[in-house]
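Researcher: Please translate sequence to structure tokens.
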Amino acid sequence: MEIYRNSARKHQTFVIALTCYFLFAVSRLAFTQNTPATDDFLYAQKLFNEGYYDLSISQLRLFMQRYPDAQQVADAWRLTGEANFALKKFAAAREAFETLEIRYPAHPAIESARLRIAECFVKQNDLKSAALTYQRFVLLHPKSGKAPEAQYRSAELWLRLGEAEQAREMLYKLLEDYSGSDFRLPSHLLLVQSFENSGDSKRALDEAERLLRSFPQNDLTPQAYFIRARLQEQLGQFQLAETSYQELVTRFAPAEESKKTTSARSRVATPAQPAQNEMQKAASQEWTSQACARLAELANARGDFAGANNFLDKAETFAPNANAKNAIVLHRAELLAEMNDYNRALESLAKFDRADSDSVHKLIYLYTVGHLQEKLRNDAAAIEAYRQVTQLPRDVEARSDSSNPQYRRQRSFWRSAAVLSRLQKYNEALALCRAYRSEYPSGEFRDTVLLLEAGIQRDGNNDYPTALRLYQELLQNFSESPLVDDAQWGIADVYERIGEKRLASLEWQRLMKVYPASEHFSSAQNRLRLLEEFEPSNS
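Model: Translation complete:
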């Protein structure tokens, strides 16, 4: 009897297990059998995930034509937008995201779609539409975790558009509405920048001071300290600026390089706390390096050349990458050149890494080499360096002059022509003068190059009519130039050389009357006196 019961139980257990397995297999089969619409969408999605963006766009277009009512159509529009964005087809991408926004405003990806629309506007250089789109995002999603960044991006764009008041309004609102956001500090820094860009350095410094008081010390970045120091320097508060730069270096210099750190800095460096993000470390080193470079500049202004050199050594040590080190090498060479120590300046450029340099630093390097070689009278080397500068694209000069215009590429035309003129290679010098005037019709050195060209025609080629025309062009077109008295002297001298004594006398008289403070005044006086003494009939 017991054997029968055991056998019955086993049979019952087997039947139940078989039934469960059958039900599981049937249910799995039901779930794995996709509809044709789902299969088509998944195939398009697979193409997108594998980076076949053109093919995925074609497949998604076919999918939406075949199955306009499928539940995946909203996601198809989203993927179409992302694929076009990846292909840098920003107009098509924006159209897809806008379609998603209009037709499916409750879609889970609507926030990212609206942000993508703003990014497309930025890529298309429609900054105003981008700023307004970011503002609309904040209005529609005020509690979104992405709202503070959208508000910040909007302010940033308004500032780029020159709408400082609009930018400040957005920034003040961000500081008030999102006081716990990670974008609070960047927003306050952007607020400082807005006043600085408007030329109100005093207000910018006030905001920078308020920033430093408002944030806990451990939350502050080296950029905040650097901006305060730079503004103090701009306002002539050099001692305060030096103190601020020193504070930055003390707080943020790498521990192994800075023995005298504050207790707060020591706490930041303790192993018990998380390691600093590599990008943050690089940024910290960059600002520290720049602070040391500014300290070197201030020391140099005081005449403390040893101190300046010491700070440049530190700046080079803290530089986070080859590009930053190149910037310090160039800075050192420029300081040595200011001290008229041209040989040491040229030697210091041996550390410049041309292989890892960007085009901006390459331009500055080549120009500095040319300038130093010219000072050392190594004319061939100077001309070659200047020639390489002139062969760089014009936009490189624009980028190198973004904060402190030096016009090094333009200068290279002028200085190279001047050196060639000194070497009596007049045709080459004139070719460079003409090339400069053609390439820079409104250039910064148009008057200087005109004067040089006129001098070459007068003294080198004895082409007095052309020289006279160039001097007169300078007087007529550059009446505010500091070189007008030189041009006036040249006109009088040419007339005297070609025997037009009466005209020469008139031009000497004009020089003395119009430019009484000119360094040529006594020369003109003497030349006029000689004309009157030896050519009384022409006086």
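Researcher: Any highlights?
Model: The domain at 450-539 is CATH 1.25.40.10 (Serine Threonine Protein Phosphatase 5, Tetratricopeptide repeat).
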